[in-house]
Write a structure and sequence with these properties.
six-stranded mixed β-sheet; Rossmann fold; 23 helices; alpha/beta
Length: about 575
């Protein structure tokens, strides 16, 4: 078996499946052109050898580390220039990773850790960027070092140790609140196996690791790595001591118990400073497929924990004078005010978010929520100048994209903003991006259902909304409204009525939905009652005035909605 030291470049097309689904022939033609015009010439010019192509990816070997990095940077610079003047949705982007290490040679192919690590680094790169290992950094620091920034230690997939990663571009360092101490920090301790069955040890450890990995997707959480928390496995240690050692505010711990054909998992969240339980839950499942159970429980825990953390932090923030709040706490307050969906609270939320940005102009999440809050004002008409508010929102979101294209909230908000302007394809692109970045955020999951319903796929939308409600038992009341609309679009009127009945104080539009549902069911008395309530809340309500607020892609869905409202007797 022949071994040698080599610099390995791994490259991959961003969103390849999406591009192929949209235009298979066009995408293949574009990739062929990129290889011919950019990729292959850059490799040849620096003495590289194309080892193999892998669908939308490529593996290249270099004898020189500097040559490998120069090649990666040259490719990305040429790719950026190629699409600089074209539509965003037609641009093709690439991620590239570079590592130097020992490789195994078999014929023309290469194997081993050197190859695996290059591929894992590629996944850490920004779209249009390059990620390199610390070994590569040491060799290029004096020559190309200023191009890269320290991206910190990261847990790479299927790599058993954390690796320090260096990233190209201005967004290489993740943005953070001005006061890092204000950011919630959490350690997930190894779940205890209480069943007495050694085989359940694997389940308990796997569950813990999955929770840590999935919580790490939430950018507002500082999550301690597996390597640090598993030190405490099997040890009887005081939680306050662990919190002090790891410098965290919260600890999540739990246990797994197998009994007969069932498995029970308990989890609790503890605020260490006050030594109090913030939240606890128990999950009982049949032991039919233990790994499906693991996935389900992980999703349930991960979707709930951030909300419980946020609620606990909000309570803590109330004890501090507003003027002394750090950037993160301003964002936290702004988000809570936004969720109240009232004009006065919306205006105060913008002020809170402006203060956060003043403290830390590079705090991407603050810009994202400012854009979201302005979007809420625009949708509800809480503004003196609708166009100015819309433009202000767009500037906030553009700032976020420049700071951090991998913020799931940014893409969630962009999806909502685009659906509000009936840009269905662009909306779906950003929604899918948000979902890929954080599939456990229930705001993203429920919005998947909303957008699919607008796109004429209401049956799929219903499943996503129900999933969001299952994931987060503490979900906002408005989830019922989203579910009711999806049922209505699916022509499932009884279930739509049942969903809307969960609302404590329906607004005029929700009463209009109920009137339309009852009219379709032939219940004229209830249809009339909700018609009266609609006009009582909004005497100016007309079908013609209401229809432009809807964003159906399929004209048949819009016609169905119009006919239903008129059938209920609402004024044309």
């Amino acid at each position: 078996m022949e071994r040698k030291l080599a610099a390995i470049l791994a490259a991959d097309i961003v969103g390849y499946s999406r591009l192929m689904a949209r235009d298979e022939e066009g995408t293949l033609g574009a990739l062929k052109g990129l290889r011919h015009d950019i990729f292959d010439p850059a490799v040849r010019a620096r003495g590289g050898r194309l080892v193999k192509l892998m669908g939308d990816g490529a593996l290249v070997e270099f004898a020189s580390v500097v040559a490998a990095v120069e090649c990666a940077l040259a490719i990305q610079e040429s790719m950026t220039a190629r699409y600089a003047d074209g539509p965003e949705e037609e641009a093709v982007a690439m991620r590239i990773g570079v590592h130097v290490g020992d490789v195994i040679v078999q014929g023309d192919d290469l194997y081993g850790d050197g190859v695996n690590l290059a591929a894992r680094l590629e996944a850490e790169a920004e779209p249009g960027g390059v990620a390199i290992s610390q070994d590569v950094w040491r060799q290029i620091e004096s020559k190309l070092g200023p191009v890269f920034r320290d991206g910190g230690e990261r847990n790479l997939k299927n790599i058993d140790r954390p690796m320090r990663v260096y990233l190209s571009g201005a967004t290489a360092e993740p943005s953070a609140p001005a006061d890092r101490a204000a950011q919630p920090s959490i350690a997930v301790l190894p779940f205890a196996n209480m069943s007495g069955d050694p085989e359940q040890e694997f389940f308990a450890d796997g569950l813990t690791e999955d929770i840590i990995t999935e919580l790490s997707r939430f950018k507002d959480l500082l999550v301690i790595s597996r390597n640090s928390t598993f030190v405490y496995k099997g040890r009887a240690v005081n939680l306050q001591e662990i919190a002090k050692d790891l410098d965290v505010q919260y600890i999540a711990e739990g246990s797994v118990r197998k009994a007969g054909d069932r498995v029970r998992v308990t989890v609790q969240l503890i605020e260490t400073a006050a030594d109090r339980h913030v939240w606890a839950e128990r999950y009982d499942r049949k032991l039919e497929d233990i790994f499906d159970i693991q996935d389900e429980i992980t999703a349930a825990i991960v979707s709930t924990l951030p909300g419980r953390l946020e609620a606990a932090l909000r309570d803590r923030a109330k004890l501090r004078p507003t003027g002394n709040m750090a950037a993160y706490e301003y964002v936290l307050t702004g988000k809570i005010l936004h969720h109240r969906s009232q004009r006065k609270d919306n205006e105060e939320a913008v002020r809170m978010l402006d203060r956060a940005i003043a403290l830390d102009p590079d705090y991407a999440h603050a810009h994202a929520w400012r854009g979201c809050t302005l979007g809420q004002a625009w949708v509800y008409g809480w503004t003196e100048d609708s166009e100015a508010t819309w433009n202000d929102m767009q500037r906030s979101l553009a700032t976020v994209l420049a700071l951090d294209d991998n913020d799931s909230d940014v893409h969630r908000i962009l999806a909502a903003a685009n659906i509000a302007q009936d840009n269905h394809e662009r909306s779906f692109y950003h929604q899918e991006r948000a979902l890929s970045l954080n599939p456990n955020d229930t705001l993203i999951v429920v919005q998947q259902g909303e957008i699919l319903t607008w796109l004429g796929r209401a049956e799929e939308g219903i499943e996503w909304i129900l999933k969001a409600m299952r994931l987060n038992p503490y979900h906002p009341e408005r989830f019922w409204s989203h579910l009711g609309r999806a049922y209505f679009v699916a022509r499932r009127y009884d279930e739509a009525v049942e969903a809307f009945q969960h609302l404590n104080e329906p607004d005029d539009a929700q009463h209009a939905f109920l009137a339309a549902c009852h009219a379709r069911l032939g219940d004229t008395a209830r249809a009339e009652a909700h018609r009266t309530k609609t006009l009582g809340l909004n005497p100016a309500f007309t079908v013609a005035g209401y229809l432009p607020t809807l964003h159906y892609k399929d004209p048949a869905d819009l016609e169905h909605h119009e006919e239903s409202l008129l059938l209920a007797g609402l004024p044309a």
